Amino acid sequence: DYAIILEKYNQSACSNKLFKTYPFLKNKKYYLFMGRIDPKKGCDILLRSIHFLGNKFKSNLVFAGDYNNSTGSELKKLVIELDLQKKVFFLGHIINEIKSEVLANSKAMLLCSHDENFGISVVESLGYGKPVLTTYKVNTYQKILDYNAGYVANNNVKSFSKIINKFEN
Question: Whole-model pTM?
């Protein structure tokens, strides 16, 4: 599950499999959250940040991770409450080529974690040359800043929405 398939990645061949599986992603620009759907990951902050940005947020957000748990249910309710159904998509657990394709076609990785020792999804995203927008609570944040590989914020709506807006512009 943790492997990325860089050497096998072929943009035209891969995007066909991705869009056959998830046709609603075709021609959409999206940010990606990939990982365990858990309260410590700050997914609620991601949703509230997008809502806070309103029309300034021109993209979509894709959740790749098993959402069949209480946190996933709460997030789906929050999507409805914030009226984000047209901007937020839940894919469930993804692996192999589709995982590579979702990464390769994303704009950036979003991880608003409250506590993260070493985010595998961060490394996978960086492996595809995708910027990472994360928090100071992710232990690799200093490397992201050192290598200009993304933006870092506090793990709250106001701060995180600022870096999303900065990246969008």
Answer: 0.89
